[in-house]
Amino acid sequence: SKPSACLDKDHKKPPIPKRDEAPPIFHEGDIKNFIALNKLNVLRKPALRPARKSVDTKKGDSFFLEFSGLVPKFCMKKEFGETPKYLVQRRRDLDYSEEMYHKSIPGKKFIKLSDEERNNLLEGLRANWEALNQKYATLPLLIDTKLLQKRKTELERKLDLLEHDIYFLDRNEENDIYILPE
Prior knowledge:
With about 180 residues, this protein is mainly alpha-helical. It has five helices and four strands; from the N terminus they run H-H-E-E-H-E-H-H-E. A hairpin with a 6-residue loop joins strand 1 (about 55) and strand 2.
């Protein structure tokens, strides 16, 4: 049960070979013929074409044609004139969501809002706006607490929503407005 190999005093590793006795080690870089490799790389590369330039003065000032807009660059692409893929996908998604929406309410159809209902709705919205505006006007001038700040921003938000709805109904007086029945 004793580890005899480790405790053996006569046990030693083999000696390191001397420099002249060791086998030669060849690195990959030692046997490469860089001149031949460079020749092959040059032969395999496509020929370099000079950049197309146009000289515009007698002194020889020139500019690149590619960036000047004189060369038709984008109209030569095969995708030119086609609707981009992201717009096609967006249209498909919108059509799908509209189809799902119409499937979700199969029996319900939109009904036209009559002029009388529209006027009643407008009067109700204006009355609500007046009540909220009265509350807003009674707020103190110095608003220093979080509760007052929150109340003020909430009243402003509600007033903005009511103003938007009133503006929408006023603006579309001659247009028909359709609603979902309840």
